[in-house]
Amino acid sequence: MGGLALNTHWQRLVLTSVREFIQREVVLIDLYNGLNADATQDASYETLRTAMTAALFLHHFAEVAFARGALAHIQAKNKHALFSAVGGWPIAADGTNRPDDVKILGEVADAIKHGVLTANHIIHVSKHGRVIEISHAKPLFGEGRQDGSPQVAISTTAGVRSFRAIVENVCRGWINQLNLDPI
């Protein structure tokens, strides 16, 4: 299973879920400015659902790439070593490295998969065990929506992070490392 199968997986599963999440977040922002509260609430749930799907596919892409030989240069004896190795790849839109983003994405994916957050050294879950939520807060690093409009956010020990920025940063790392199709 070479690069073609990996790029197909990237295009059809990872990018499709990431693009759907980004589109849903835009719809949420557009509806937020309207008067239909029910439509806004429905859009919020759809945005969260697509964010969760994107988290799962994007996080587990590392295992797919490793299993298909695309990461043969990484000497990983277990999943922890694999994710540590790819942890330095995420790059923000401004070109700065975001090494915690793979770990944050992994913790979100694990919390979604298992229904509970088990790692608390990066993520701080402030309300009712929610890992990701719709927030109006200004995210760190000038990423995400800075105007108070709704977006999917993650509370970390450093502050609120835009989930979309984390997803885009991790995608950018994979795109740069494996020459994959962009978002």
Record keyword descriptors for this entry:
183 residues; mainly alpha; three-stranded antiparallel beta sheet; 5 helices; 3 strands; 54% helix; globular
Poorly predicted tracts of residues: none
The number of distinct helices, counting runs of at least 4 residues, comes to: 5
Strand order of the largest sheet: 1-2-3
- Tell me the helix content: 40-55%
- Structural class of the helix and strand makeup? mainly alpha
User: From the alpha-carbon coordinates, what is the Rg to the nearest angstrom?
Assistant: 16 Å
Give average pLDDT, whole number: 88
Number of strands: 3
Alpha carbon gap, first and last residue? 23 Å
**Approximate shape:** globular
Characterize the main sheet: 3 strands, antiparallel
Order of helices and strands: HHHHEEEH
Q: Approximately what portion of the residues adopt beta-strand conformation?
A: 5-15%
Characterise this structure.
- This protein has 183 residues and is mainly alpha-helical.
- Helices cover 54% and strands 7% of the residues.
- The protein has five helices and three strands, in the order ααααβββα.
- It has helices at residues 3-32, 37-67, 79-86, 101-114, 163-178; strands spanning 132-135, 151-155, 160-162.
- The protein has a three-stranded antiparallel sheet.
- Helix 2 (37-67) crosses helix 4 (101-114) and helix 2 runs parallel beside helix 5 (163-178).
- The chain starts with a helix and ends in a 5-residue tail after the last helix.
- The mean pLDDT is 88.
